[in-house]
Amino acid sequence: MRKATSNVLHSVTQRHWPLKIRTAKYSTPPLSKDTYKIKRGNFASLTDKDINVFEGIVGKTRMLTDVSDVEAYNVDWLHSVRGSSQCVLKPKTTEEVSAILKHCNERRLAVCPQGGNTGLAGGSNPVFDEVVISTSLMNKIISFDSLSGVLTCQAGCVLEQLESYLLEQGFLMPLDLGAKGSCQIGGNVSTNAGGLRLVRYGSLHGTVLGIEAVLANGEVINCLNKMKKDNTGYHLKHLFIGSEGTLGLVTQVAIHCPVSPKSLNVAFLGLDSYEKVLEALKSSKKDLGEILSSCELMDRTSIQAVEENLKLRVPIKDCPFYMLIETSGSNSDHDEEKLSQFLENALEKNIIVDGIQASEPSRIKQLFEVRERMAEALLLDGFLYTYDVSLKPQDFYSIVPTTREHLKNVPGVMRVTGFGHFEFVGIT
């Protein structure tokens, strides 16, 4: 058996916050500099002179200093952490980023790079009074080569907008996330986001061909290679993929994009044990082979949150576990036949207890909505803690019952759930 790894987004929800979470009126305050129990580094504090320098770089309209304007950049999507930044800068070019970082480096001002601020771990938010550098206005598509499939764009391009642009060209982003409507490609690269399509297209270490980044001292590093094969020298791009801004701020990305599939099919499965989930995983790899493009796991507790809080309905009977499997290929008749045969085999062997197959775009969107809006549903319970961990498929779900046991006597805990991507390398 070859080594295989998977991600499970394991969450704990508590009824501590009201359902209207966006009001920022919480009964339990988010983690902040006062509750982190860590010491601020030996950094300088922002002065009026710094503000004047920044104004000279980005102008008044692209600099936020009002408390109410800065609020959204200090707090994460879950409202679980809060920084105390007093200044948000919105550069449009690499040169402006370079000038900002050069000044901050000379003045020893701490900075916090921020993309779409959609992360669930607080990594995009300041801890203390860091200067936030938002890439939201660095949103230009620089070029696209339809022969090689290489897209080059600025870091602030929203993932869904890139997807829409590529679909018009007959291509597809190799990355797909539930937060694609607001997450940015620079943040995706900086966090090495996996997403729903990793099974088919691999990680960003394989699809990102090059990056441009600015170091802390303002120096621009140009690794914006656009060749799929490059055997020359060091591949410094890999250091920045997943570095979360600790080595530099990513400003441009070159990414290899596959041709958009002509045929998409989805199966939503119900299973009565985790052992059956592993059997279904093996069977999907064997029966679907080259057209398998996505494989997702959800437990019953996760589905209950979606049904209760978002009023979405799962179109199959109640089961302890669910799987969402997607195939993508070039021949609809061939792909539908393979998926149908997979479902028949799984039913005959008692691997699954129920299942539904869909090929219509609207129906596929409805089924994926159940999975993609899971974090949103859990957040509506009140307070949400999430942990994104990578484990072998055999151990994928074990963390959930273990956590339930640890928290069974803790007041206020409502649900402990498990859901996520099956990102296996191979399993036999």
TrEMBL record:
Record's keyword terms, sorted: FAD, Flavoprotein, Oxidoreductase, Peroxisome
Subcellular location: Peroxisome
Gene3D superfamilies linked: 3.30.465.10, 3.30.70.2190, Uridine Diphospho-n-acetylenolpyruvylglucosamine Reductase, domain 2 (3.30.43.10)
Name of the coding gene: LOC117642329
One GO molecular-function entry: (R)-2-hydroxyglutarate dehydrogenase activity
GO cellular-component term (any): mitochondrion
Segments forming domain FAD-binding PCMH-type: 81-260
EC numbers: 1.1.99.39
Protein name, entry field: D-2-hydroxyglutarate dehydrogenase, mitochondrial
Keyword Glycoprotein found: no
